[in-house]
Amino acid sequence: MTTIGIIGAGNIGSQVARAAAGLGYDVVIANSRTPETLAELIAELGPNARAATASEAGQAADIAVVTVPLKAYREIPVEPLAGKIVLDTNNYYWERDGHIEALDNGETTTSELLQEHLPTSKVVKAFNHIMAKDITTDGFPAGDPQRRALATASDHPEATEFVARLYDQLGFDTVDIGPLSESWRVERDRPAYVVRQNAQELRENLAKAPRTI
Question: Domains (ranges, CATH) in the chain?
Answer without folding.
Answer: 3-207 (3.40.50.720)
